[in-house]
Design a protein that fits this description.
Blueprint (H helix, E strand, L loop, with lengths): L3 H5 L8 H7 L10 H14 L7 E4 L3 E4 L11 H14 L12 H12 L11 H9 L15 H4 L5 H6 L2 H8 L2 H9 L17 E10 L2 H21 L2 E12 L9 E12 L2 H14 L6 E13 L15 H15 L5 E5 L9 E5 L2 H15 L6 H17 L15 E12 L2 E4 L1 E2 L1 E2 L4 E5 L7 E9 L5 E7 L5 E6 L2
Antiparallel strand pairs: 1-2, 3-6, 4-5, 4-6, 7-8, 9-10, 9-16, 10-11, 12-14, 13-14, 14-15, 15-16
Helix pairs in contact: 3-11, 11-12, 12-13
Length: 488
């Protein structure tokens, strides 16, 4: 297929070599690589699976999409076609769009747009389809090239002229297949097609046309691979939490490695292309290329099932946990995982060990939530078991005399010191700037013997005579007093 400049000079598909060079002396002819063209078409089809599961590889390097059930999801036909065009452009290709109620009708409009014989690219009604297709030239028929200029000799210029010819004569001269093709194009016959099937595992390769030695250029090229990954994930109803980008380097130095690998991982599985590209950008900006890159390969390492978020009839102003997780992942990628921390609660009675600061790991929170849901989803007990449990509860209630009200727990301060501060004693009272008065009952904590940091303490709430409240304790063995926290 000639490019736009050659097309303007008069070069057309089917022109002889000498005629093409006569029209465009600076024309450059490229050898056709059927296998490479097929791989390129499959990569585009893989990226377009994000819009519909019915993607078909058609005649003359055409990709057909059945989008009847997807228009509302993507905001209407115009918005959907715009997103499809943007995706194809992101894969590194240009496209000519055609939309019609039939597959061959869309194919004809797309190729008519390529040959600049019509400006109509979208048809929704079947009545409009007949009128527009009748005006298209008969040279768009897929089998027209094999018949030479026979259509011109019999005075057949448009598809309407072809439809007016006697059916028996058309079948005898051009074969019965052209009648079946006309019926399918005009929606008068069924047109079953085999859909493109995404592979079981994802692996994409991209050979760069020039040496790349900058992170920004690598990100621009890797966008094609990410779009294919997102389409593959949509086809398998899955999400990814880790992938590997293999970089093939040019051997510029003797001791430079031939390949290098970038592992990009995050906690919450996703198939959002923008989020994946953002994380990849941060990883590439922090990486150092040992040599120029000439080829890239992308492998999906950790893939899991993905359930789309359910929508509600009346949206509520609740927090978006997924958006918060993505924000923290971006901060981790930008600042480093060790610089984004979270408070982790621990089952320990010692105040200084009941909470710790660790690197943010939302996967652990998701795991705990799944554990709770699993416990709630247990099968209900049988009727006999419930009766036995009720009987046991009745026996316990009869044997134990519980108080009417639960024993109140001791209050905890808003601020706990990182290390307890030792206090002096004056007149047998702990002293912090002034004598402290104990105003609460004793709370004894004895724990930590299992890790060698055992404590034996008696905690009190103390008053400093000016409205300030303190949390103090006395060591049971030494009798020393310590300040451990402040109340608001």
């Amino acid at each position: 297929m000639p490019d736009l400049v050659a097309f303007r000079l008069g070069v057309r598909p089917g022109s002889t070599r000498s005629h093409a060079f006569a029209l465009a002396p600076q024309l450059t002819l490229l050898a056709v690589d059927i296998d490479e063209e097929k791989r390129a078409l499959e990569s585009v089809a893989l990226a377009l699976l994000v819009f519909t599961p019915k993607v078909v590889l058609a005649h003359a390097n055409t990709v057909l999409l059945e989008v009847g059930a997807s228009t509302r999801l993507f905001g209407g036909l115009r918005a959907l076609l715009s997103k499809v065009t943007s995706t194809v452009k992101g894969c590194g290709f240009t496209s000519r769009m055609g939309c019609a109620p039939t597959a061959w009708g869309g194919w004809l409009l797309a190729h008519a747009r390529t040959r600049r014989v019509t400006r109509r690219v979208r048809i929704v009604k079947e009545t409009t389809l007949v009128r527009v297709l009748d005006s298209l030239p008969v040279s768009l028929v897929p089998s027209a090239e094999s018949h030479g200029n026979v259509f011109e000799q019999i005075g057949c210029a448009t598809l309407a002229d072809l439809r007016r010819l006697p059916r028996k004569g058309v079948a005898r001269r051009f074969g019965p297949g052209i009648l079946q093709w006309l019926a399918q194009a005009y929606g008068q016959a069924a047109d079953p097609r085999e859909a493109f099937c995404a592979p079981a595992s994802f692996e994409a390769r991209l050979e760069l046309q020039a040496r790349v030695d900058s992170a920004e250029a690598l990100l621009f090229a890797s966008r094609r691979l990410v779009l294919q990954l997102v389409g593959w994930l949509s086809a398998h109803h899955a999400a990814v939490s880790k992938f590997s980008l293999l970089l093939e380097h040019e051997l510029a130095a003797r001791h430079a490695p031939k390949t290098s690998t970038l592992d990009i991982a995050w906690a919450v599985p996703t198939r959002d292309a923008d989020h994946i590209l953002w994380l990849l950008r941060e990883k590439l900006n922090q990486a150092t290329l040992v040599a120029p890159v000439i080829e890239m390969k992308l492998f999906a390492d950790q893939v899991s099932e993905h359930a789309p978020p359910s929508d509600t009839l009346f949206p509520m102003p609740t927090s978006d946990n997924e958006s918060m997780a993505q924000l923290l992942e971006r901060l981790s990628a930008r600042l480093g995982a060790e610089n984004v921390v979270q408070l982790v609660e621990r089952d320990d009675h010692r105040p200084e060990a009941a909470m710790s600061i660790e690197a943010y790991q939302p996967a652990r929170e998701a795991k705990s939530r799944r554990g709770k849901k699993t416990e709630k989803a247990k099968e209900p007990a049988s009727e006999e078991t419930e009766i036995e449990a009720e009987a046991e509860d009745a026996e316990i209630d009869e044997s134990l005399e519980l108080p009417d009200r639960a024993v109140p727990s001791q209050p905890r301060p808003c601020w706990i010191l990182e290390a307890p501060q030792k206090l002096m004693l004056r007149n047998e009272r702990p002293y912090y700037r002034r004598p402290l008065k104990l105003i609460s009952r004793t709370e004894r904590i004895e724990a930590g013997w299992w890790d060698g940091n055992g404590v034996q303490r008696d905690y009190y709430v103390a008053d400093g005579d000016h409205g300030r409240m303190f949390w103090v304790y006395r060591e049971r063995l030494s009798g020393s007093w310590f300040l451990h926290g402040f109340f608001g």
